């Protein structure tokens, strides 16, 4: 009898909608919540375990199932749960994937089932109001210490501002929503709630690193920034659909890590730098947590004369790491060295992705700026 019930649960897994995790979309979920009626992956099952008042989980393959639990799963399932718990998810709200950090997945699961934010839209006020202010821990540019700073996001002004003192009349920085990006970077920042915000100042990228002790608070900030970007883009591109705009709200970096680089004449030695590939901008920093890049390289498309090559030109010297990459641009060659072959392969793939993608009209303006940089 127990075997039959387990077999019945395994059969339910094959139903459309149940073949991927109900929360993050990972394939082949092998856990189930028998109080919510959903099939979930191992990673998300750990989060469900932390909210036992809402969700109780079992292994599909290893645990024993009773008749009532099997019937409950059969009459519910992932599609039914989605129809109920995700009926009013705002377009701008970030839906995590299997590769996203623990915090994003945890807050999505709590928002859905525990707080039921997507059944009752009034609960979405903290990130959909168009205005938000509060205190966040911000990393100091020069000393690396995190200090409490007041932040204000105002959609009406199209800006995120922060103030160095509570009584300060003028903000220390004004970051235009138009050029803002936010991405969770817990490992880099050294805090599970660490968020990196980048913006353009004088057409160069600036970074700030922030966190809040409360996970809900920092994810609400993240979604408030996405909401502000969404409403800005709706005005900027009046004919665009939500589906066109959502991918532009915030982006994760294509690749980050250490490489060595040399100067334009390729006569000086190679130096180790931290690189970040953000869309078509390849930036390099002395330290991963620097406020601004030492330099940026624009990577255009093959139609515009950009090529990525494995290895170095024959005469290259001065590199410590053995695995070379050459990026050929219309004006010059850039040489980089990777420590391992797998690093080289991943970087080449990231560069190739940019080179293979035709350039958008606005990217030609960015390219022109890079060419005329002093």
What would the keywords be for this entry?
11 helices, 374 residues, PH-domain like, seven-stranded antiparallel β-sheet, alpha+beta, Annexin V, domain 1
Structure description:
It contains 11 helices and 17 strands. The strands form 3 sheets. Strands 7-6-5-4-10-9-8 form a 7-stranded antiparallel β-sheet. The protein has a 7-stranded antiparallel β-sheet with strand order 14-13-12-11-17-16-15. A 3-stranded antiparallel β-sheet has the order 2-1-3. The protein is globular. 30% of the residues lie in helices and 25% in strands. The chain is an alpha+beta fold and 374 residues long. The chain folds into 3 domains: 86 residues, Arf GTPase activating protein (Annexin V, domain 1), CATH 1.10.220; 120 residues, Pleckstrin-homology domain (PH domain)/Phosphotyrosine-binding domain (PTB) (PH-domain like), CATH 2.30.29.30; 118 residues, Pleckstrin-homology domain (PH domain)/Phosphotyrosine-binding domain (PTB) (PH-domain like, Roll), CATH 2.30.29.30. Helix 1 packs parallel to helix 3. The model has no long low-confidence stretch (mean pLDDT 93).
Question: How would you briefly describe this protein structure?
Answer:
By secondary structure, the protein is α+β, with helices and mostly antiparallel strands. It is built from eleven helices and 17 strands. The chain has a seven-stranded antiparallel β-sheet with strand order 7-6-5-4-10-9-8. Strands 14-13-12-11-17-16-15 form a seven-stranded antiparallel β-sheet.
